[in-house]
Structures are given as structure tokens and as C-alpha cells.
Amino acid sequence: MKDQRTTDTVTQVSILNALLASRFDGCLPCRKLLEYGDLGIGTFDRMEGEMIMVDGSIYQAKADGRVYTPDLDNRTPFATVCHFHPEQTWALGEPVDLPALEKVIDEKVGNPNVFCAVRVNGFFSRMRTHALQMQSKPYPPTADVVRACVQFELKDVSGTIVGFRCPPYVKGINDTGYHLHFLSDDKTLGGHIREFVMDRGTCAISICGNHLVIVPEEGAALAGIDMSRDLVDEFHYALSGER
Question: What is the mean pLDDT of each run of 10 residues along the chain (243 residues)?
């Protein structure tokens, strides 16, 4: 029997609503994340780039298009990790795009109301990513930060996708649906996934029944946020450019 404390738990630092309220200051050292997982995604202090955790190592895809190995004392304002032990693994022998991969995973999982950790290794004829740019105080609205992300178009690259599918009931706590990051095999390219075409690859998933939220510093990251507002809908409304 697997130890559910380590193999069946999605652990996250802070909550999505804090990030949507422009709380970009890191609140937990990256080295502490390694106690809770070996696969994960997130960002870094002041939103400096995209976090990709693969095989227990943390990488930082920055807005200059390069991937770095960050100082483990660097702090994260928001991250999601798990100890990845796949329950289902299958080969993808023909090309798939992002919506097609999500559909296959949904069918494999069945239950839409559980967390699912995802790892895909493959060859991509096309991979489009973005990376957050480091912010300075006073911090701007989160929609402006995302709108200003630097985008990258990669061609014919091998690499790894990692991330999570979160259930609908965690709206405001984490990203509902899929949130996936990419790291090339040579560890030089990566970021938050926007689109891709994968020619071939292998997909592995792990269903996680437990969810742990860590709010460091006695909840200081959440102080002063009006949680009665629907910050997720406000974010998407602002991002759409509607007024």
C-alpha cells in the first residue's frame, strides 16, 4: 500500500486569489518545496519566470528565453507540487495538440472532481510557451502581468510536460482545469504552455486524493485580500480587454 502522505497529496504554496490580488512577494523557500514533491509548477519571487520541477530538480524559465537553475533560497509566492508515482502510463503514437491531450487524460481519469498530476515526455514539432517578467513595486494588476508575458515559439524539440488538472471546486484556490509547463531535454528552453503539437510521446498520470495548502508566515500573504470578491472572474474579464 502506498503512503498517502507522500504519494497521494497535491501540495500548494499560498492560493491563487493571493496571486490575483498582486501578492507577488515570495513566501516559501524553494528548498522547502522539495520536501513536498518531485514534480511541480509555479513561479518565483516577484513573478520572475516559470517554475518547472522535474525529477526533484527545480528549473526557472525566464523572460529572456533561457532556463536557469535557481538558488534554492529563492522564494515562491505560488507553487503546486506532488510526489509523482504514475498509476497509468500510455504511448501516444500519432500527433496530438493540447486540447486532444487534455481530452485523452480526462477519459483516462474519468472523475472530473479529483486532482491529477501529469507528466508527458515527447517530441514536439511545435511548442509555444510564455514566461512571466519580474515585477517591481507597486505591483501592477495580475492581468497586466500575464498580458505582458514574453512568448516563445519552439520547433522540433524534445522535452517534458509537467503539471496538474485541478477540479472545479478549487476555483480561487488553484487553477481549475489544466496548468502545464514545459522543459526541453537539454534544460535550455521552457515555460508555461500555451499550445503545442506533439508528434509522439508517452503520457503518465497520477490521481491525487489529498490536497494540502500551505500559507506561510501565519497567513500574512492573505492579509487584506477581500475574499468575498470573485477574483478569478475579475481577472479573466480584465485579461479579455473588456471595459
Answer: 62 97 97 97 98 98 97 98 97 95 97 97 98 97 96 98 98 97 98 98 96 92 92 93 52
> Letter for the amino acid at 103?
K
Residue type, 189: L
Nearest to 69 by CA among 81, 79, 60, 80: 60
- For the entire predicted model, the pTM comes to 0.95
Count CA atoms closer than 13 A to 102's CA, side-chain side.
16
Q: Contact 38/240 with Cβ under 8 angstroms? A: no
Q: What backbone torsions phi and psi does residue 19 show, to the nearest 5 degrees?
A: -65, -40
Residue 77, burial from CB neighbour count under 10 angstroms (0-12, 13-18, 19+): buried
The CATH number of the domain holding residue 175 is: 3.30.1330.80
As for how many domains the chain has, the answer is 1
Please count the residues of the chain.
243
Which residues are within 8 A (CB) of 35 and not within 5 positions of it... i.e. 6 or more apart? none
Backbone phi, then psi, for 230, in 5-degree steps?
A: -90, 85
Say whether 66 sits in a helix, a strand or coil: coil
Q: 230: domain range? A: 4-239
